[in-house]
Structures are given as C-alpha cells and as structure tokens.
Amino acid sequence: MPEVTAIILAAGLSRRMGERNKLLLPIGDVPMIRHVVDVYSGATDGRVLVVTGHQASEVEAALAGSDARTVFNVNYAQGQPTSVACGLRAATDGDTLLIGLGDQPLLTSDDIKSLLAAHAAADISRISIPVVEQQRGNPIVVPANLRARLLADPRSPGCKKFTRTLPEHVQFHASASAGFYADVDTPETYAALKAGRLEETL
C-alpha cells in the first residue's frame, strides 16, 4: 500500500461544548488534540496533517513538539466539508489518506493499524469505513485515486455526500472498537469520558 498521510480535522467551532474548545480539554496530561495526534503518529510512519481553524493558535500551541504539520482552513466557519477539502489539497499526491477527527480520545494506534490492515487486504481502490450495527465510524481510509473526485464538487467537497451517493466506491469493515465511534462534543460526554463511561453513551 502507498505511503499513508493522516488528516486530522481540528477546525470546528466546538459550539456544543459551550465556552471551552473541546480539543484543548485535558486527556491525561495533554490536550485532547495532542493525545489524538500521538495516537495517529503511533499508527503510521507517514505525515500527520492537522487542519486548524477556530482558535488555531491555541491548537498549534497544544501540538508544539509533535511531528504534526498544521494547515489553516480559512473557510472553517462554513463547516467540516471545507476542512476535509483543505486537508485533501495539502496532502501529497499518491498518498493513501487517513481522514479522522480530533475529538476521538478512545481511539488507539492499534485501532488505526487494524483498519489500515483491513483496507490493504481488501480493494485498495475503494474508501474503507469502519462500521458496527450500521453505524459508521472514523477515521476512514481514502485511496489516492479518489482524492480528485472528493474535491470535484465545490458545493459539497469531502467524503460525506460522496460516500453516500456513490456506494460503489465504498467498502465497510466491521469493528466493534469504541474508539471508532465515540467522540466528545458536549460537557456531558466529556464528563462521561473522565468517569470512564464514554462507551456507555454510544
């Protein structure tokens, strides 16, 4: 399989968390976004790109000393598809892309390695998505041959519309690992995480 570049989306306004930016909340001794970057760095030897937007300088400060490269999305207030597009444009031609979220603290390096292995053992020309009981998870694996297709529609760039309207380009990999499906969007889910009960919110 070609070199893998990880694209981690970290540009959102974090509105549901209230006044706090969820990506800067502590997970152990580090901010959440740094924890997630370290997980991705432990899963692949390729580059890790972090797409920033809201409170970009604070997110960049949280990543100081990591191997991640940040890419600022000037259109971040227009929603996640613009951040996906920003990351796609910043990635190297020919790389397999691993597109994930910055707010999935239960995700482990082993989870990511298992998804990449499943992708490599299947049709590497299709997008690979983890799934459990029809619930889609993140990250997803995007082959280089589909990168341009994801950027072709300027009104709706990225993966969501593409993977739902063109299912022939998608393959699903069953995995029950909570890391693929648990994110932290609200004070309640963060409290559940700290109490060790985030999986119960799925």
3D shape:
globular
CATH level 3 topology:
Spore Coat Polysaccharide Biosynthesis Protein SpsA, Chain A
**CATH level-two architecture:** Alpha-Beta Complex
The ordered H/E elements are: EEEHEHEHEHEEEHHEH
Please tell me the total number of domains. 1
What is the alpha-carbon Rg in Å?
A: 16 Å
**Main β-sheet, spatial strand arrangement:** 5-4-1-6-9
Report the count of strand segments. 10
CATH class: Alpha Beta
Low-confidence segments, given as residue ranges, are: none
Distance separating the two termini? 32 Å
Q: What does the largest sheet look like?
A: 5 strands, mixed
Total helical segments: 7
Question: What proportion strand?
Answer: 15-25%
Q: Residue share in helices?
A: 25-40%
Classified in CATH, the superfamily is: Spore Coat Polysaccharide Biosynthesis Protein SpsA, Chain A
Structural class: alpha/beta
What would the average pLDDT be, to the nearest integer?
94
